[in-house]
Write a structure and sequence with these properties.
The protein is an alpha+beta fold. Helices cover 37% and strands 19% of the residues. The chain has eight helices and nine strands. The protein is extended, with a radius of gyration of 47 Å.
Amino acid sequence: MRSIWNGAISFGLVSIPIKLVNATENHSIHFRQIHLPDGGRIRYRKVCELDEEEVSGGEIGKAYEDADGTMIPITDEDLAQLPLPTAKTIEIVAFVPADQIDPLQMDAAYYLSANGVPAAKPYTLLREALKRSNKVAVAKYALRGRERLGMLRVVDDVIAMHGLLWPDEIRAPGGVAPDGDVTVRDAELDLADALMDTLGEVDMDSLHDDYREAVEELIAAKAAGETVRPAESGDAGGGKVIDLIAALENSVRAAKKSRGEEEAGAADEGEMADVHPIKKTSGKSSASGKPSTRTTKKSSPATKRSTPKPTGAKKSTSATKKSTSATKSTGSRSTAKKTATKTAAKKTSSSGTGTKKTASSRKRASA
């Protein structure tokens, strides 16, 4: 990668020669302006206001326009002679936790490459020190005619630098928040949490620019002379007052569907919607003569629709109850007879025993 700036990192009294390399690239599709009647390209020509003649790049310099319109020329030599330590140096001023850097300050990103073999050792020292401290370095540097603020951090085995906006370049968010006192219900928060959990995490490498791909397909189609069909317009619902609860519920269902969870979700919803009480049926009698109390398994809605209802169910049930009560009464009578017989036998045996004891006592008295 081509370097855009050469200088050094000032780490106390340690100087680390480095090269600055762009860490990002722009993949946007750029368009040219054309003259619609004939398709000719529109170009901007640099013309001097005084003599109205076009000038080349070598004849163009920089100047500062004063309040009264006076132009004050400033040359590159003038800027190079400024007494700034950051003119060719990235000067580290502090080490702070990364969460102290406001993301609103983030600007362009660069990679810092060690410039030459002697820079390898101090470069590695700074990199490992940043890793072990779990901090980032705040630095000042000069680039493209102005002094800037930067943040140094470690990415893999490379020191990266993010350009930062100065604190006074961040606008206050006053007047941006919604007006009035807006209340959010717990149910809405619960659904929002459910939607966040359903969406889950994402592999950042899997994200891509759909708009750029669509533009590339459009250009390829028009270059081949093909007819471009208009895209289907989708209703984004912008500016409409919607039912927030319904929108959140639909969003959760759509997120589950996109992740292949719609089958399980539909099954769960079906079970919750089709709930019936479990009925007890009097089937085969058990060995004790009591009707079985085992419950039948809940049939599906299709089975319920196809199975006809038995017509004589009540009659057979009452007949079963009558036969069961008759069996119980017959059993109770036979049990009573058996009990009476046993009682009489016991009395007879006890009276016989008493007669024997009386005869033996009379014999002893006569003797």
